[in-house]
Amino acid sequence: MKLKLDDERMSDDFFEDTKILGIACPLKNYQFCWQVEKILNIPFATSADLQIGMEKNKRSYSFTVYEFIHPITSKEHFLYSNKHEGEFLLPELQHLDFIWLIRDPYNDLVEFNDLQQRLRTIPGVQLVTEVAREKIKSRDNLQR
């Protein structure tokens, strides 16, 4: 008997209790994170193990992922850079520079809507929009 991973179920588990924002902003990753920390008081951090590597056309690409886990609520925030040297982490969302995934078991819509509004106040942010999980065809790229 062969055992087989259920990729669809793993994907569903990863996206359980999540909301996703797409952000268009021409700032570099570190500049955007600095603005987020300064204006929204969310201190994102990254590390080598949070990077997402991808091979395409015999080239290697690395997409930066930033993380913040709220110390009181344990709400998880992940900020993905969607672009690197002309390639996209989520090709179906090429118009977005950043993908912000929030894992919130309490599904606090008031706080989520407030975050969207506050993100729009950051200099350089051109667009903040909620992205439905179903619209993301390459969602496995967020789970690497």
Q: What is the CATH fold-level name?
A: TATA-Binding Protein
Uncertain segments of ≥5 residues (pLDDT<50)? none
Distance between the termini: 28 Å
Run of helices and strands: HEHEEEEEEEHE
CATH architecture assignment name: 2-Layer Sandwich
Q: Outline, from the CA principal axes? A: globular
Report on this structure.
With 144 residues, the chain is α+β, with helices and mostly antiparallel strands. The chain has a single domain, classed as TATA-Binding Protein, CATH 3.30.310. The chain is built from three helices and nine strands, in the order H-E-H-E-E-E-E-E-E-E-H-E. It has a five-stranded antiparallel sheet, covered by helices on one side. It has a two-stranded antiparallel ribbon with strand order 2-3. Strands 6-7 form a two-stranded antiparallel sheet. Strand 6 and strand 7 form a beta hairpin. The longest helix has 12 residues, at 29-40. The two termini are 28 Å apart.
In short:
With 144 residues, the protein is α+β, with helices and mostly antiparallel strands. The protein has 3 helices and 9 strands; from the N terminus they run αβαβββββββαβ.
